[in-house]
Design brief:
This protein has 3 domains: 121 residues, no CATH class; 215 residues, no CATH class; 103 residues, no CATH class. 67% of the residues lie in helices and 2% in strands. The protein is built from 18 helices and 2 strands. The longest helix is centred in the C-terminal third of the chain and has 41 residues. It is globular.
Length: 454
């Protein structure tokens, strides 16, 4: 039994896999001028990305070889068993085609994003995102990742490494999302958190209604690598990425996520992601509350965000988090310290940083009513980008007083003033940090040369 159509499709798919899996050729063709002088970050991330893609493409080629081997066994047969093998071959081909097409899209998006960055279409936001990730990467013990403009979330969270800056979200207000993207890198690549993550996934799966309704034999199969197990892992990692971004960025991430991205209406339409963004909002605010000290440092911003989210959900009749869902999320939060204990203690956004951000925000708030532009506070080599993002959000959301202005709305012009001032302050801090890195590199080189002297 021979199926010319299936054979032709196996041939063309294998050709496509071979064409894509040639990283050296693609890298040479890119000719990215922006990185010609300093290509360390690009070379590192290109190597990581193409290694992952290459492994995945080789996996698909092996599957095609297995399909060809099964078809070879039935080429001279025409019976019920051979029909079953042929049907199975079509099913396996369809699965391999779907996975391969996803890989092709990821590959094309990565290359397109690099070209987009190289031509400076991203208004330097990706450069800011790079430095933001660099500033937190030592806190989580893994290397940073370059940022790439993208139109959507990753199709394959297992990819990691690529920090997506979603088009057209190229503003200071959405920059905290780079920490969320990088959080997925940490959750997927940092070996020390894999065990506690697996424990959280098992707990989540055990309370999944679709799972608890299964017979025991099917439960065992699902626990190994079934669809429910995969869904549980995707959901848990989504929540944990929100939590880690909040842990690293502080209230700035909570503000950006709840006020700009989470959907209060309900379903996101993504199968492998939590279907109700209200769960993510609940989780983020609980994590932020847990970061708060005895003095209630974050109380006002948590209350503000919770109230705004609740009011919007009531207004549009959005979905609420049920008591059962709250219980599951609280169980996940109880295991949160197991994740953060694997990071450096100073990875958590501190109350001291919040005070610094608040002082900068106070300065800008006082100047907003003035005809002059917002000026720049004093900075030093210890100043951090995440404090600028928090200062901007404090200035945008904090009430002027507890009276009539409690829920004031800034004008579009005032919001743009804050964003411009924050962007300029970020640029100044980046220059300071780069200056410090150059000085450190010179010191290292000097020490090394002294050691090598006879």
């Amino acid at each position: 039994m021979v199926d010319p159509i299936l054979n032709a499709r196996l041939d063309i798919l294998e050709q496509q896999l071979n064409i894509t899996n040639n990283p050296q050729m693609w890298f040479q063709k890119l000719r990215l001028t922006k990185w010609e002088s300093d290509s360390e970050d690009l070379t590192r991330d290109w190597g990581k990305f193409t290694l992952w893609v290459g492994d995945e493409l080789e996996n698909q080629k092996r599957k095609l070889q297995q399909i060809r081997a099964s078809l070879e066994q039935i080429k001279d047969r025409d019976d019920a068993d051979s029909n079953a093998i042929m049907n199975a071959a079509w099913t396996e081909y369809s699965g391999s085609l779907e996975r391969s097409q996803m890989l092709f899209r990821e590959f094309l998006e990565f290359i397109g994003g690099l070209i987009f960055r190289d031509k400076d279409f991203d208004a330097a936001i990706c450069d800011l995102a790079d430095d933001l990730v660099k500033s937190v990467s030592p806190l989580v013990f893994i290397t940073s990742s370059i940022s790439v403009p993208a139109a959507r979330d990753s199709l394959a969270r297992s990819l990691g490494w690529m920090v997506r800056v979603r088009f057209p979200e190229w503003t200071i207000w959405t920059l905290p999302f780079a920490a969320y993207e990088y959080a997925h890198v940490v959750l997927n690549e940092f070996a020390r958190v894999k065990e506690p993550i697996n424990a959280r996934v098992e707990e989540w799966l055990e309370t999944e209604p679709d799972f608890t309704a299964l017979p025991e034999a099917e439960k065992l199969a699902q626990k190994q690598n079934g669809v429910l197990r995969q869904r549980a892992e995707a959901h848990v990692k989504e929540f944990l990425a929100d939590g880690l971004a909040t842990h690293l960025m502080g209230p700035a991430y909570a503000c950006a996520a709840i006020l700009l991205r989470f959907d209060p209406a309900g379903s996101t339409g993504r199968t492998l992601h939590p279907p109700i963004d209200g769960k993510r909002a609940y989780f983020v605010l609980k994590i932020l509350e847990g970061m708060d000290g005895a003095g209630g440092t974050y109380t006002w911003i948590v209350d503000y965000l919770r109230r705004k989210w609740r009011d919007t959900c009531e207004r549009i009749k959005g979905s609420e988090v049920s008591p059962e869902e709250e219980k599951r999320l609280n169980t996940l939060i109880q295991g949160w310290n197991e994740i953060t204990s694997k990071l450096r203690p100073d990875a958590q956004y501190s109350e001291m940083n919040w005070v610094i951000a608040g002082n900068w925000a106070n300065r800008w708030s006082e100047q907003l009513a003035q005809p002059t532009r917002l000026d720049m506070p004093d900075i030093d080599h210890a100043s951090r980008l995440h404090n600028v993002l928090n200062a901007a959000w404090i200035c945008r959301t904090r009430p002027l007083d507890e009276g009539a202005n409690k829920d004031r709305l800034l004008s579009v012009g005032q919001i743009n003033e804050i964003a411009e001032a924050a962007k300029q302050l970020c640029d100044r801090i980046r220059l300071k940090q780069n200056e410090q890195r150059r000085q450190n590199d010179k010191k290292k080189a000097k020490r090394l040369s002294m050691k090598l002297r006879p």
